[in-house]
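Expect chain and fold; see below:
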Amino acid sequence: MKYTIRGDKLTVTKSIKDYVEEKLNKLNKYYEKEKDLECKVLIRCKNNLQTIEVTIPLNKLILRAEVSHQDLYAAIDLVVDKLEGQIRKNKTRLKKRYEKNDLDVPEFDFDFESDDEGEELEIIKRKDIDTKPMDEEEAVLQMNLLNHDFFVFKNIDEECVSVLYRRKDNKYGIINVK
């Protein structure tokens, strides 16, 4: 696995870099072609919290985990556990999908564990909405009035359907669906 480790508002020392690589190397056992994988690590420091964000782009999905903790080394351990859980969950779901459709199950390079931490996907509510054309500023106002974390609207500026969402830093993001 190739690593890109950088720090935001802190210097990544050799010991931190070695510890991150050592822990993330545990994930190599899950993939046959681990030499082709690229792992991006961002370490941030804000107040007393150390945050580590790891992103591993794969062929069909992106593994991403972010953990904040007062101890950086504890945060590294927790983010690796989180990523490992995501890998197991996705491979278990993929195996179930192949079995459900009576297809040959592809060979994975590790045994599936019997603990079914990835419960069946269940949609419990479906909602139809009528969107009216509006600009982004009006969409922000509507979202805040409804007290939601996201809002779907017809964007008159971009001439498409857009999803407005509130980010963790309480700023806004927009996804345009073209």
Notes: The helical segments are 14-24, 72-100, 136-146. Residues 28 and 34 are 6 Å apart (CA to CA). The radius of gyration is 20 Å. The chain has two domains: 2-100, 133-177.
